[in-house]
Automatic annotation (TrEMBL):
It comes from Danionella cerebrum. It comes from the Eukaryota. GO terms for molecular function: 1,4-alpha-glucan branching enzyme activity; hydrolase activity, hydrolyzing O-glycosyl compounds. One of its GO terms (biological process) is glycogen biosynthetic process. This is Glycoside hydrolase family 13 N-terminal domain-containing protein. The lineage of its organism: Eukaryota, Metazoa, Chordata, Craniata, Vertebrata. One of its GO terms (cellular component) is cytoplasm. Residues 33-104 form the Glycoside hydrolase family 13 N-terminal domain. Pfam families: CBM_48.
Length: 115
């Protein structure tokens, strides 16, 4: 039984190393989650919601349209949304905007406040 568990552990560790660049890199994932402004003023939103079927960003920047900004599903329960800057080069989501992440699980939609 112990060999079975160790074999499962090794398999998961191998997947983690392949997808995340190693266990150490995985433990630093807090550096990449949340909201990040890029040098070109685009914004990257990254969340972890392994049970979710869909994620959407809503807020005063998009007049609270619940479904206009959908996240893309990544591996291992990660979700990512890239929002390009406005035509004038400013971020599309102004500083101090009120934001929510809509998380769809089955037929339920939960809201999580970001600010």
């Amino acid at each position: 039984m112990q060999q079975l568990w160790y074999g499962l552990f090794e398999k998961q560790l191998s997947l983690l190393e392949e997808a995340e660049g190693g266990f150490d890199q995985f433990t630093r994932s807090y550096n990449s989650f949340g909201v990040h402004r890029m040098p070109d003023n685009s914004l990257v939103f990254k969340e972890w919601a392994p049970a979710a079927e869909a994620l959407f960003l809503t807020g005063d920047f998009n007049h609270w349209d619940k479904f206009s900004h959908a996240y893309a599903k990544q591996e291992f329960g990660k979700w990512e949304l890239h929002i390009p800057p406005n035509e004038d080069g400013n971020p599309a989501v102004p500083h101090n905007s009120k934001l929510k992440v809509s998380i769809c699980i089955g037929c339920f939609v939960c809201f999580i406040y970001l600010n």
